[in-house]
Amino acid sequence: MTDLLARTRTRARAVVAVGPLVVRRRARRDAGLLLGTALLLLGALLVALALPRLVARTADEALQGTVDRAGTDAAAVVTQLVGQQPAEAIDFVRGHVEQVWSEHPTLAPPTTVVSTRPFVVGSPSGDVIASLVMLDGVEESRPTVRWVEGREPAAVPADEQWQTDAPDRPRVVEAGLSVPAARALGVDVTDGPVTLRLDTESSGRIARVTGLYEVADPAARHWSLVPDVVAPVPTPPNALGDLRVALYVPFELREDVQVVGANRALTAVGTSFLRTDGLSVAQAHGVSAALVALGVRGQPVATNLPAVLDAFDARLTAVRAQAALVVVGIAATAASCLVLAGGLLATRRRPTLAAERARGASVASVAYRAALESVPVTLVASVLAFAAVTWWLPGATGTVTVALGIAAVAVTAPVVLAGRVAAQAWNGRRVPADRRERARLRAVGQARRLVAELTTLAVAAAALVSVRGRGLVPSGGGDADPLLAAAPVLLAACAALVVVRVAPALVRAAGRLASRSRGLAAPLAVARAHGGATAFVPLLTVTVTVALLVLSGVLVQSVDDGQRTTADVLVGADGRLDGRLDRAEGQAALDALRAAPGVTAVATGSQTTKRAYGEGSRLEATVLLVDAADLAAVRTARGLPVDAGLAGLGDATDARVPALVSPGLLARLDPDGVRLSVLVGSVELDVRGTTALAPDAGVPPVDARDVLRDVSDGDDGLVVVDRSVVAALTDVPAADRAWVSGPGTEAAIAALDLAEPVYSGLTATTAQGWWRTWSGETLTRALTALQLASVGALAVLAVLALVLVVVATSQERGRTLSTLRTLGLDARTARWATLGELAPLVLGGLVGGSVIGLVVPHLVADALGLAWLTGSAAGATVAVVAWPVLVAAAVLTAATLVAVGIEEGLRRRERLGEVLRVGER
Predict the structure, then answer these.
(1) CB atoms within 10 A of CB 904
(2) Mean pLDDT score of the chain, rounded to an integer?
(3) Residue where a domain terminates, one of 211, 238, 273
């Protein structure tokens, strides 16, 4: 036992003895290379640690904007119970919503809205729709108004108010009007209160308008609950009045409101918005789950926050998936560069390591000394990177898996490569004398290589098949799909393997051509190229770099093209106007657009769904009634496809309506004599062809929930008819949309200076404006910036990789060139030799990487979630573009010239006399 312990101590001492001393001496000699490797490692770790945290912080900022835009859909709403009396309902809602708010700090102080069922109110300007509205809140959610004319409403004296023992008295409440509402209704309180009868058919309910007010903070979120309190709101078609206004009553006068609103369905609703300051994705999901749980337990709490978060999560998952491609790609390239740096360090130390082996040092001792060098460098770089990221992004969270992988490569690569060099220094001379044994060993080596290559191909194929089968995987834990992130790198590795197999044959073919050329440049370049054709790690580095560079460019172009295509689909012209175009405001806006300079065409129309197509066929169609000739001109001006026969739909014959129908409808029913219901009547169609148009989505939305929704309403197809032709035969819906085209469209729409849609009743949208809004969304903008920045980072890594390759092979190449210089080799031919050695590496990496970068997006398009980034309900199309390949070619060309230039600068210091005196270098 004692002997065993002694032998163990002896062996351990043989491995670790004087290790720190040797490491210090070596580190001083190679301080520059070690410092460069440490800086590369530090940069890679910074990227691997910072990018996931930046994505998480950007996701929080994007969520805050999404919640703000969602309004009441992202709020907790408390409603009264069925059968509650008004007074009981008001107190119940107020108390319950305040309790919900107090239990969930993520919620903002609540606002309670109490309103009556709408009355038809006569005013000096005509009948309007009005409700009595009271608001109450807590802290900053308490709505406040500023009285600018008249006086604040007060309680009605008991001797003037309706009572059970005085049923002949009217039910009276004092109220206020907003200044815009008073102006629209022609109400003037200068000479005293103005009496408005609630319900024009009865005088039993009266509202005394005692004063006019302005809201203190129109931008406050609680005003979105009751926009008619701020200003008049246009009513929908077929309403009993053109405007809806609110008769604002202070909450202290609730008893008068209950008297006037008796038997009029008094409604109380409490709303608590989410606090967006500092709101995180995790917090939003937590409060969403809590609110849903309250509703499940039977409490009167409702929210649409889960739907808002589902759409946001889908978009965030797409962003994380594409960002992961960038992070893993840069990490893989940086890790390959670290392997090249480790190989360069081992190559420079080859004589020293061989001498150590000759003096009896074991491979384990060599690896131990390399580890004493790589572990501290990695630890210092990791600590610095983590500290820098924590200081820059405090509180942010993100995965560290990629960073751990880079650190593992930084630790193990120098160890393995140094051990390999030390082992080869001895084993390389031990070759069997038997020719058959040498052949067997060579076959074993080839078989191992083949197994490794086939394993890599199988793993890459399995990852690709899995990603294609699963599609976009929700990132519930915040991490992207690892298979999707690794797929491009694995496929790039496969491409590198193919290039390594094919390149020698191509080099031999080039050698046969070079042998026929005059001069030394071509044969020397081809001779040097044989070594570079089979170097796998450098080729893998260049291939991955090019693949990720091209992939990023393709995705950026695909998203941009998809967004612009979606803008054309949703807007359908250079611009459009939606709303009540049959009213005076709408007609004035249309007239202004038609008269605006640069506007070439304006087409109006309307759309109705669930119209019977064919008698007894049980088919339902969406009917688009348009100014056909104008719409054809609008689409032509925009460069959009125009259906054949669209411009001629206005030419009717035989009391039939010319129409274009969807191919699906045409295939399911004989079009001869088919009838189509419109509103209350029906018309006989003269089907003249098919249409490629889709049902119009109305106001182009910027909410992901609405952009990707199906607007067909379950109909079997679309029928396009001319509006004027149908109007001559039966009633048609009022025009509620207009398409505008021409170079002056954007300026003309901006000149309309419309108020917010809720108050103007009109929404103006331009295709360019929609694209700017959608592409400027926080997540999409950040992803585009990340992908474009990755092009620069990958370009730097490509230059570094080629420089490392050139420097690593410079010693062997230097011996050859120094010898040839004594025979008259000039600098130009030496440059060609270096370029020839790099040619298989650069060209193979460019071709293989470009193929992977162009093909991968098509193979995994569903898993990239492009539809959520482009807003295309029909799915996004991957762009086929050449500029990313040209950029990659330019980057590799520049990198090659830089690498050759660096080596030429080093060789320029050598004098021919020194070479002749010293010999090979």
Answers:
(1) 13
(2) 82
(3) 273
Q: Where are the alpha helices (DSSP H) in 639-730?
A: 663-668, 704-707, 723-727
Which two structure tokens, joined as six digits, stand for 679?
């509103």
- Asked if 725 and 811 sit in the same domain, the reply is no
Among 122, 907, 868, 264, smallest CA distance to 558 is for: 868
Q: How many Å apart are CA 247 and CA 255, to the nearest integer?
A: 15
In this structure, the answer to whether residues 562 and 659 fall within a common structural domain is no
The whole-number pLDDT of residue 921 equals 46
pLDDT of residue 660: 92
Over residues 840-885, the pLDDT tens digits come to 788 888 888 899 989 888 888 878 888 888 887 666 788 888 898 9
Within a domain: residue 9? no
Whole-number Å distance between alpha carbons of 680 and 683: 10
Q: Are residues 684 and 774 in the same domain?
A: no
Strands in 451-587 per DSSP E: 575-579
**Residue 162 resides in a domain:** yes
Same domain membership, residue 894 and residue 795: yes
Average pLDDT over every residue of 658-671: 85
pLDDT score for 459: 84
Q: Is 898 exposed, middle or buried (0-12, 13-18, 19+ CB in 10 A)?
A: middle
Could you tell me the pTM of the whole model? 0.85
Q: Which residues fall within 8 angstroms of residue 461, CB to CB, at 6 or more apart?
A: none
Residues 671 and 790 in one domain: no
Domain that holds residue 648: 600-741
Tens digits of per-residue pLDDT, 773-782?
888 888 889 8
Give the residue among 802, 785, 786, 863 at the shortest CA–CA distance from 333.
802
- Overall domain count for the chain: 3
DSSP one-letter string for 409-435 = HHHHHHHHHHHHHHHHHHHTT---S-H
Q: Give bridge partners of residue 624 from the DSSP assignment.
A: 607, 720
Same domain, 777 and 730: no
Count CB neighbours of 425 within 10 A.
19
- Residue 346 resides in a domain: no
| 688 shares its domain with 808 | no
